Amino acid sequence: MTQRKILVTSALPYANGAIHLGHLVEYIQTDIWVRFQKQRGHECYYVCADDAHGTPIMLKADRDGITPEELIAEVGKSHFADFCDFGIAFDNYHSTHSDENKTLSSLVYTRLREAGHISSRTITQAFDPVKNMFLPDRFIKGECPKCGAKDQYGDGCEVCGANYSPTDLKNAVSAVSGATPIEKESEHYFFDLADFTEMLREWTSAGHLQSEVRNKLAEWLEGGLQQWDISRDAPYFGFEIPDAPNKYFYVWLDAPIGYMASFQNLCDKTDLKFDDFWAKNSDVELYHFIGKDIIYFHALFWPAMLSGADFRTPDAIFAHGFLTVNGEKMSKSRGTFITARTYLDHLNPEYLRYYFAAKLSNTIDDIDLNFDDFSHRVNSDLVGKVVNIASRCSGFIRKKFDNKLSETCVEPALFAEFIAVNGAIAECYEHREFGKAMREIMELADKANQYIDHKKPWAIAKEEGKDAELHDVCSVAINLFRILAAYLKPVLPILTTEAELFLNSPITTWIDELQPLVNHTLNDFKPLMTRVEADKIAAIIEASKETLLKA
RNA sequence: GGCGAUGUAGCUCAGUUGGUUAGAGCGUGGGAUUCAUAACCCCAAGGUCGGUGGUUCGACCCCACCCAUCGCCA
After folding, report:
1. ipTM of the complex model
2. pTM for the whole thing?
């Protein structure tokens, strides 16, 4: 197999709040994919960063009585800890508020400007006369001009679904100070996206996108691309625009460049070369995993920016759906707005990794975390099926054969059958059909349990002179278990590490290279995973409700 | 409001480029078993494939409209 060079990113989490289970769909999905590529022997790097700029962060720091820098340092630390504890193995985790990102953002901008893709004009915007700042739509509240609902945001009504501009709101007030906003003029800088209409028309239909995403973008392209407002006035927490005092890059300008910046930061710590990955002629594969809500930024603005600034464009954007809990949007009052940390306080992170894997596909469909289903699925598949194979046979090997496997594998056909599906399962992982991969793997687990049931080692053990047969059967089962562990390694790195310890043999390759362990000494078996306990789930929901009260 | 997507057994999901009896896992019921973390093995019951029309010899799969859910509207 030819070794591929791959650079992968997940979307940058915003540095104004904790990581929650919705975020984790994406990081777990990406991490599984990256671990799979690495296990196959490819050269694959996974970078990410905190998205640290913008008005919400500036205002939150203000409210908390700290500087934005202090806020993002604190939040960045907790994000990273959450990811680590869920087994997300970034090759680098950085911040968009970094020297690398400042340099690269300026570089991208000046290249776009030199190529004639930046223009400026004066626009009128809502302004808070007390706070002395321009107000983003989300920071203006008032009554919906259509249905009269109170307390609606400046961009749209959550009650009747109407869309409008903030100036349409009745009795509008600044959500920051409570003052009545006034209108004020300011010069803004724009990225002329329309210059890239042909480039994007081609790019979006060249196989870089899922079909649902492509459909959605076709609408945008047909409607005609507009200029993208990329500047914000001071006060703003971000990077000042070159040659434009008191003008700052809009957070969404420097956020995707944060992918490059994080990678640059990795290059500085290793002997990787930035240009090999980002130069126009790069042959490295580049993939961005994102949620379906930020498709526009990644499938329109981002390729256009890269292309206009003379960098390479992504090979694909992989969009996923949202997470619902028990069939509904996550809700703070129902206790289903669950942070990563609250989950970790009560449950094994690998339960969630497996459950998400079992439900993920390459579509943008939402996935549902149904807690009853979650418990049944994890208990049945992982504890009842997979781990059980080792559990039910290891006792015989230890007690009767001093933890040593038999000298030959007596079921080469069965072993080969387990190995033979590796191509199909690899295809599933490669195409992000993780749910399908899990189904295939569980089918093998069923087969292994059926084999044991058919051979009945507990009955053989009671017969005189049949020790060799008992030894052979149990050794086969342990070898089948090892194959299953290898298949599950991208999803369950912690469980697999413990399985490797039990097997006294690391799994370092893809399944096609596995040979049966023969005449090989195991370590004592310890329970590799315990069942999901119902009271822990109740505790998580309770704790999530408490978080709300504190907030 | 416009647009994109989703809606299949109690639950979570497969699937069909339109063609005789619609699949899996879990849950449930029954049986078997005791090696294993009340795990495993065998069998069974369960669905008018969101609704209404249409195209077709024939639609769960195509078309139109409607309803519900999710997302986007720079």
Report:
1. 0.93
2. 0.96
